[in-house]
Design a protein that fits this description.
GTP Cyclohydrolase I, domain 2, 132 residues, 3 helices, alpha+beta, four-stranded antiparallel β-sheet
Length: 132
């Protein structure tokens, strides 16, 4: 069984998140780590972005979703990001970890991790964009 993945690591985004009144006043840094399950064989053979997942567009999507959100919970933001990433053609499943470094008092960060799989018959995003 093949397990290919694209990893997006330590993507920093400023977002409005949190339940405390002071958290609703200014954006905080969140750190995203994503694992996109996909079959990389066609792109590995052809060396053509059209045969793979454009991770630059995935990154832009995650940044946009987080920056435009104003959720109270990391769980809601993680689910929204999962749903957005699963619209990309070729992404079969995604694991999203969202770290909120400013949240804890005694730990490095608080984080949530969510794993979601594409449901059969779901719509896929097909835009490729420019590449070198």
């Amino acid at each position: 069984m093949m397990h290919d993945a694209i990893l997006i690591r330590d993507l920093e985004v400023q977002a409005l998140i949190g339940t405390l009144p002071e958290e609703r006043l200014k954006r905080q840094t969140l750190i995203f780590n994503l694992e996109l399950e996909t079959d990389l064989e066609a792109a590995a053979v052809s060396d053509d972005l059209r045969d793979g997942v454009n991770y630059s567009l995935v990154e832009e999507t995650v940044r946009r979703v987080a920056a435009e959100s104003s959720f109270f919970l990391l769980e809601k933001l993680a689910r929204t990001v999962c749903d957005a990433v699963l619209t990309f053609a070729g992404v079969d499943a995604v694991t999203v970890t969202v770290d909120k470094p400013a949240a804890p008092r005694y730990a490095r960060s608080i984080a949530v991790r969510m794993c979601r799989r594409k449901s059969p018959g779901s719509r896929e995003h097909t835009e490729v964009g420019d590449h070198e």
